[in-house]
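Your task:
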Amino acid sequence: MTALLKIGLGAVILAASAAANAQASANIGWASEYHFRGILQKVSSANGGLDYESGGFYVGTWAADVGDGLEVDGYFGYGADVGDFSLSIGYTGYFYTGDFDDTYQEINLGGAFAGLSLDVAIGRYDNFTGPTLDYTFAALTFEHEGFYGTYGTFSQDFDGDYIELGYGRTISEIDFGISLILANDDLVGDDDESLIFTIGKTFDL
């Protein structure tokens, strides 16, 4: 998922609000490189999704081209404001129509205060015919006036971390983004730097 256009599913989870009115929306987008949690999935990838929110509850789906078929995500949960804090809890499943990867399922916990947010995922990876793997992912993000910086790290059976710096802006209802990802060799097998451009649009339904 793309920066400020749902680069990480944590962005969707932390964005869930306690709005009283139901709202449905759709989104489409394109990324020069699709990275998820610091790991390259595909160069030049189109994506799209549907979301529904009501009273703080949310449910949605999102799909992206990963070359060998599609990545199709499903998620649901609840988010609410408690004083100046925003808190959320939810579930995410990552599924694939081809052999690009196997299924991931995770519980997502989120918290935000002012421009600082913490996203934690506790997950399990089916790992094809190998042993099932457990992982924890945590990301700390600071955002201010469209600029943001994220530090993300894996633990348990997964290892590695990355830094992402970016900026997003909406012009004539079109969302544009640029980001730089710096991933270490524990995460991607070799130190990696990637400059990414994104474009997308959200529609109310």
The chain has one domain: 9-204. Residues 9-15 form the longest helix (7 residues). The helical segments are 9-15, 185-188.
